[in-house]
């Protein structure tokens, strides 16, 4: 099984090159290649997931250079789950884009495959500098995707997005450099061993480097006060790209979880749980700010973008508690919020494309085609995002509230999550009633060019909602798996021994 | 030498940060380039500053310079070079599309049309 770990990175990379070199003139062939590759990716990542659920962490040494000198990929329960989530989301997005969006600009499918490669690589890598490289790969692809189809608003938002992320990349290098200068290693497992042994005179450098790195991950995760890029980017990105970007914020959350539980977790001595005091308050503010944005939004797309910020707040509240129960609850919410955000962006595009010149502004407009059907989809998606029963958002929030019971900040967490849930319900209720209900009484009808029942986009949007339903029905097995994930995250010796060999911990006398 | 390297990194970072916060795209692009130079030199210095030493361990060699930061800097230079090219093209495209080179898409003091839309 070990060799298959590299497939989720190599397969999209080869496909992207093939698409851009061999079939760039034929959109049908591009779609066939891209969809086939993504289906294959789902199959591979599913088998990796099944493997990881029955075994301990597994390591793949690139070019067979031994760790910690070479770069390693590590498959454990968490990374297996994340790559599977990425490929499922990718399948939905590529189906949606293959009806019409991919014709509005060049090279959509090639960039899309590169994006998958970068995201999968970031989830699988066990080397902190390699994490930087995969961040760059996914960012470079995302710049192209974000600007797909261009237009003044999109270029403006894209410019800001690129500048913020380039600054973030510079900070990433500074952080990595500082950590390397005092520990002499870039391998995450080796880092976990070296961090407690750092000389006390160098501890301040290590702490500063680790916190700069945390700042970079928080930029990716759109945590207040570094969330400014998200609303403009997501609201102006092409719909399938915005849906795909639902996984990008999770890359930030994943990195926080990985680095700060492995290298700066229980075993880190003075540096133990370095990130914890910063993340929880910031996440609470993020949640309030996101849901206030939902109430204030004047456009459907920025409404959804702000709800993504809010859901990142909820997720990072759970992560910021750094207890096994909270992290498995948070990961359940991570799965849920990825699918619900993607579903909402896709459904919003179906609505917006039918409203003609009214676009995504939240004003009443005459009826449009299939408004009844789309109203049902939007309703289901909004229930998911707001975290109301019966869908998985409710279960996720319930688990997070339950996990926060023993926390010192319990009152704050309960109050803010419950109040912001209400704000989210009000915000989405208002948007839905303006778009579908009040608009029903306006005279006339909007007719726009295009297929009346675009098959692929509707399949894709229903598939994302179906994932929410499946997550609700199979909440039991999923939660069991996630508890395994957090057990593995907290028992770092499994990970370290998988990378550095059986004796790595005993050799240094731990 | 430590003082020279440290102060030049500091100076580059200072200028880069200042330019990055300007309102027009051209200073922002130059600022990003300066920041990436500063980061590259910084990363280079993370393997400690040594002169005239082999970057490789061999028998009988006790003094050496750390080769890893050099490899890291090489990667970082390639990436930042590509990124600078991208952002130059992107800012030209934005200028041609929007008609001005302000980062938020409108000249200072102009009425906020973006605010109404968002």
TrEMBL record, chain A:
It is a multi-pass membrane protein. GO terms for cellular component: plasma membrane. InterPro entries: CPA3_Na-H_Antiporter_D, NADH_UbQ_OxRdtase, ND/Mrp_TM. It is found in: Cell membrane; Membrane. The chain crosses the membrane at residues 6-23, 32-51, 71-96, 108-125, 131-150, 162-183, 203-230, 242-263, 275-296, 303-324, 330-352, 373-391, 411-432, 453-475. Pfam families: Proton_antipo_M. It comes from the Bacteria. Keywords: Cell membrane, Membrane, Transmembrane, Transmembrane helix. One of its GO terms (biological process) is ATP synthesis coupled electron transport. One of its GO terms (molecular function) is NADH dehydrogenase (ubiquinone) activity. The keyword Ribosomal protein does not apply. Residues 127-422 form the NADH:quinone oxidoreductase/Mrp antiporter transmembrane domain. Belongs to the CPA3 antiporters (TC 2.A.63) subunit D family. This is Cation:proton antiporter. It comes from Thalassospira profundimaris. The lineage of its organism: Bacteria, Pseudomonadati, Pseudomonadota, Alphaproteobacteria, Rhodospirillales.
UniProtKB/TrEMBL annotation, chain B:
The keyword Cell membrane applies. GO terms for cellular component: plasma membrane. It is a multi-pass membrane protein. Its main location: membrane. Coiled coil: none annotated. It is found in: Cell membrane. The keyword Transmembrane applies. The chain crosses the membrane at residues 6-21, 28-51, 71-92. It holds the Pfam family Oxidored_q2. Keywords: Cell membrane, Membrane, Transmembrane, Transmembrane helix, Ubiquinone. NCBIfam families: PRK08600.1, PRK09094.1. PANTHER family: ANTIPORTER SUBUNIT MNHC2-RELATED (PTHR34583:SF2). Belongs to the CPA3 antiporters (TC 2.A.63) subunit C family. This is NADH-ubiquinone oxidoreductase subunit 4L. It comes from Thalassospira profundimaris.
């Amino acid at each position: 099984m070990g060799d298959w770990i590299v497939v989720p990175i190599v397969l999209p990379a080869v496909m992207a090159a093939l698409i851009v070199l061999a079939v760039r003139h034929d959109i049908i062939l591009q779609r066939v290649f891209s969809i086939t590759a993504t289906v294959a990716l789902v199959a591979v990542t599913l088998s990796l997931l099944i493997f990881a659920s029955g075994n301990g962490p597994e390591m793949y040494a690139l070019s067979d250079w031994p760790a910690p000198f070479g770069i390693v990929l590590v498959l454990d329960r968490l990374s297996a789950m994340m790559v599977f989530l990425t490929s499922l989301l990718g399948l939905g997005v590529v189906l949606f884009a293959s009806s019409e969006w991919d014709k509005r600009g060049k090279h959509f499918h090639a960039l899309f495959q590169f994006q998958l490669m970068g995201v999968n690589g970031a989830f699988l890598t066990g080397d902190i500098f390699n994490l930087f490289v995969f961040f760059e790969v996914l960012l470079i692809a995302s710049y192209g995707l974000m600007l797909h189809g261009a237009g003044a608003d999109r270029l403006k938002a894209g410019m800001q997005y690129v500048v913020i992320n380039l600054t973030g990349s510079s900070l990433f290098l500074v952080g990595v450099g500082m950590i390397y200068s005092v520990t002499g290693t870039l391998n995450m497992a080796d880092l976990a061993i070296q961090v407690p042994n750092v000389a006390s005179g160098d501890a301040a450098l290590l702490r500063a480097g680790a916190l700069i790195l945390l700042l970079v991950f928080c930029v990716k995760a759109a945590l207040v006060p570094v969330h400014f890029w998200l609303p403009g980017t997501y609201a102006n990105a092409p719909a399938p790209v915005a849906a795909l970007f639902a996984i990008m914020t999770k890359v930030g959350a994943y990195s926080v979880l990985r680095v700060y539980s492995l290298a700066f977790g229980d075993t880190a001595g003075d540096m133990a749980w370095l990130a914890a005091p910063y993340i929880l308050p910031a996440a609470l503010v993020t949640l309030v700010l996101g849901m206030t944005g939902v109430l204030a939004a004047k456009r459907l797309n920025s409404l959804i973008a702000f709800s993504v910020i809010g859901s990142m707040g909820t997720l990072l509240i759970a992560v910021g508690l750094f207890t096994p129960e909270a992290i498995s609850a948070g990961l359940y919410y991570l799965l849920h919020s990825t699918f619900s955000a993607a579903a909402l962006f896709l459904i919003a595009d179906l609505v917006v494309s039918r409203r003609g010149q009214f676009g995504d502004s939240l004003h009443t407009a005459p009826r449009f085609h299939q408004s009844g059907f789309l109203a049902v989809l939007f309703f289901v998606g909004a229930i998911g995002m707001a975290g109301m029963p019966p869908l998985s958002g409710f279960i996720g929030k319930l688990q997070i509230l339950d996990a926060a019971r023993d926390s010192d900040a319990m009152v704050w967490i309960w109050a803010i999550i419950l109040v912001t849930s209400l704000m989210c319900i009000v915000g989405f209720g208002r948007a839905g009633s303006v778009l579908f209900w009040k608009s029903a009484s306006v005279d006339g009808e909007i007719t726009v060019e295009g297929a009346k029942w675009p098959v692929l986009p509707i399949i894709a949007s229903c598939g994302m909602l179906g994932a929410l339903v499946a997550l609700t029905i199979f909440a039991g097995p999923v939660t069991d798996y996630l508890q395994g994930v957090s057990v593995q995250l907290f028992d770092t010796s499994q990970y370290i021994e998988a990378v550095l060999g059986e004796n790595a911990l005993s050799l240094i006398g731990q | 030498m430590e003082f020279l390297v440290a102060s030049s990194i500091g100076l580059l970072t200072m200028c880069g940060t200042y330019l990055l916060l300007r309102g027009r795209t051209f200073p922002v692009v130059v600022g990003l380039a300066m920041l990436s130079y500063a980061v590259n030199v910084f990363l280079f210095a993370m393997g400690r500053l040594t002169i005239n030493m082999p970057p490789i361990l061999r028998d009988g060699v006790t003094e050496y310079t750390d080769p890893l930061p050099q490899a890291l800097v090489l990667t970082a230079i390639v990436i930042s070079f590509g990124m600078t090219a991208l952002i130059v093209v992107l800012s030209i495209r934005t200028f041609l599309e929007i008609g001005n080179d302000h980062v938020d898409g409108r000249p200072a003091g102009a009425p906020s049309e973006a605010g109404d839309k968002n």
